[in-house]
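Hypothesis: this fold can be encoded by more than one sequence.
Test: take the C-alpha cells below, design a sequence, compare later.
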C-alpha cells in the first residue's frame, strides 16, 4: 500500500473513533417542558404540560377546598352494578371538573373502600389505599385506611361487622348489606334454596335517627337502628334489605356448634352501628385507590417489573395527591388537592406515550404533594371540565363541557364506577350535622 494512503486512512479512522466516542458519551438532548396555566374557578387551577421526551401530555388540576370549591364523589348509579362515563357523572353532579375514580370489578363494583357524604357504600373487594376528606374539604388524608365497624346496644358492644356490601360472610364473620349492593352483593341466601344450601342467620335493621358524629372529636360516625325482622330458625332463604331508606341487613353463616350473635337479636331491639376510620378525624368521603406514589414527601411508587405491564409499565394514569397542610395540626398551612392525569398509548400520533408510577410520583412532588396515590388508569383515564377553552379542550362529550386530555381508546371515554368531582359550592349532599 502507498505510504501516504495508509497514513490518510489511519487519520480518518482515528477521527471516526473520536467522533463515535464523543457521540456515545454526549448527554442526551434535554427534554423540553412546555406549560400553560388556566383558572377554572375559585381555588381551582389547571396546568397543561407537554414534555418532548416520550412525548407526554400531563394535566395537573390543583384544588384548594374551602374557597367555594368542594371535592365530592359522584357514583355512576345508586346501586351495583355501576357503569357510567366520567363526563356524565361529573355533569350530572353539577361539577366544574372531574376525573375518573377507583378501580372496579367486572361486576360493576368499586374495588376498594367507598364512602360518600357519610354513607358507607362498601368496604371493598380487596384491601388498598384511599384518599379521604372532611365534609368541608379542609382536611384530607391519604394512606391505608383502618376501617372498624361495630354494632352495640345500651349495655355495650354486640359484634364487629367484617365487611359491608362485598359478598357472603365466611367463617364466623358478620357482614352487612344495604340497597347499594343491588343485584351484585345482596344478602346471603337464595330465593329457592335446596336442602344442601347453607343456612344464614340474618336481621334487618331500619334507621331511627340520622347519621351523626359520636362525639366532639369526630372520630366515628354512628347511627341508631331498630331490628324489624329476624327470621327463626336461621333459614336458607335470603332476607331482603327492603325499600326503607338506610336499612341494613346483618348476616352470618349458621353453625350448630357456635353461638350466633345475629341470631341473638330480637325484633324491637335498638342497635347502634358505628364506623371509625382510625386516625382520620372528621372524614365523610373516602375514595379507594391502589399503589402509594408519595408518602410524606418521598417517592415510594413501585418500579417496573417484567410481567406486570398492564399496571407498572408506561400507561395512561390518573392519580390524586394532597399537600402537607391537609392533615397536619398547623392551621396556618394550606390544604390543596392535586389531581393528575397523563395520557398514554398514543405514540403513533406523537401525542403521549404514558408513564410508569415513579415518574407519576415525581410529577406529584413537583406539584407540591406530601401524599399521593394511583387511581384507575389505562382506558379509564379521563379529565373533564365544564367550561370550554380552545387552549385546553381536546374533545366535547354530549353532556357538555370538554375533555382536556385524549382517552387512549379510539372509542373514546371508558365507563367507570365513580368519578372524583369538584363542586362550585359546598357539598350539599353531606348532611349539615356532619360538615
Amino acid at each position: 500500500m502507498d505510504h501516504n494512503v495508509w497514513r490518510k486512512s489511519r487519520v480518518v479512522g482515528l477521527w471516526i473513533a473520536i467522533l463515535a466516542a464523543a457521540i456515545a458519551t454526549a448527554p442526551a438532548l434535554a427534554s423540553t417542558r412546555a406549560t400553560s396555566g388556566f383558572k377554572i374557578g375559585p381555588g381551582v387551577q389547571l396546568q397543561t404540560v407537554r414534555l418532548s421526551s416520550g412525548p407526554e401530555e400531563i394535566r395537573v388540576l390543583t384544588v384548594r377546598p374551602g374557597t367555594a370549591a368542594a371535592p365530592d364523589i359522584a357514583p355512576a348509579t345508586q346501586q351495583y352494578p355501576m357503569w357510567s362515563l366520567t363526563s356524565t357523572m361529573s355533569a350530572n353532579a353539577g361539577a366544574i371538573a372531574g376525573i375518573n375514580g377507583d378501580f372496579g370489578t367486572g361486576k360493576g363494583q368499586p374495588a376498594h373502600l367507598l364512602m360518600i357524604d357519610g354513607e358507607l357504600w362498601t368496604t371493598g373487594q380487596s384491601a388498598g389505599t384511599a384518599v379521604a376528606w372532611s365534609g368541608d374539604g379542609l382536611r384530607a388524608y391519604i394512606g391505608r385506611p383502618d376501617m372498624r365497624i361495630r354494632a352495640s346496644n345500651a349495655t355495650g358492644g354486640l359484634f364487629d361487622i367484617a365487611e359491608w356490601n362485598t359478598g357472603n360472610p365466611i367463617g364466623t364473620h358478620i357482614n352487612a348489606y344495604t340497597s347499594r349492593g343491588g343485584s351484585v352483593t345482596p344478602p346471603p341466601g337464595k330465593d329457592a334454596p335446596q336442602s344442601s344450601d347453607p343456612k344464614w342467620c340474618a336481621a334487618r335493621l331500619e334507621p331511627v335517627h340520622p347519621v351523626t358524629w359520636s362525639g366532639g372529636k369526630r372520630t366515628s360516625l354512628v347511627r341508631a337502628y331498630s331490628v324489624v325482622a329476624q327470621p327463626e330458625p336461621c333459614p336458607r332463604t335470603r332476607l331482603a334489605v327492603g325499600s326503607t331508606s338506610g336499612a341494613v341487613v346483618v348476616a352470618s353463616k349458621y353453625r350448630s356448634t357456635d353461638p350466633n350473635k345475629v341470631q341473638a337479636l330480637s325484633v324491637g331491639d335498638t342497635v347502634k352501628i358505628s364506623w371509625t376510620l382510625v386516625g382520620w378525624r372528621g372524614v365523610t368521603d373516602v375514595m379507594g385507590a391502589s399503589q402509594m406514589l408519595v408518602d410524606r414527601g418521598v417517592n415510594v411508587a413501585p418500579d417496573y417489573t417484567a410481567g406486570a405491564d398492564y399496571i407498572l409499565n408506561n400507561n395512561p394514569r390518573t392519580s390524586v395527591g394532597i399537600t402537607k397542610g391537609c392533615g397536619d395540626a398547623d392551621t396556618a398551612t394550606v390544604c390543596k388537592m392535586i389531581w393528575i392525569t397523563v395520557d398514554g398509548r398514543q405514540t403513533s400520533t406523537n401525542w403521549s406515550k404514558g408513564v410508569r408510577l415513579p415518574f407519576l410520583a415525581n410529577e406529584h412532588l413537583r406539584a407540591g404533594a406530601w401524599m399521593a396515590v394511583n387511581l384507575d388508569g389505562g382506558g379509564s383515564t379521563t379529565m373533564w371540565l365544564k367550561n370550554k377553552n380552545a387552549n385546553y379542550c381536546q374533545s366535547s362529550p354530549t353532556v357538555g363541557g370538554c375533555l382536556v386530555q385524549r382517552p387512549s381508546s379510539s372509542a373514546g371515554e371508558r365507563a367507570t364506577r365513580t368519578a372524583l368531582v369538584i363542586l362550585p359550592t359546598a357539598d350539599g349532599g353531606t348532611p349539615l350535622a356532619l360538615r
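The CA atoms of residues 189 and 237 lie 5 Å apart. The first helix runs from residue 3 to 25.
Hypothesis status: open.
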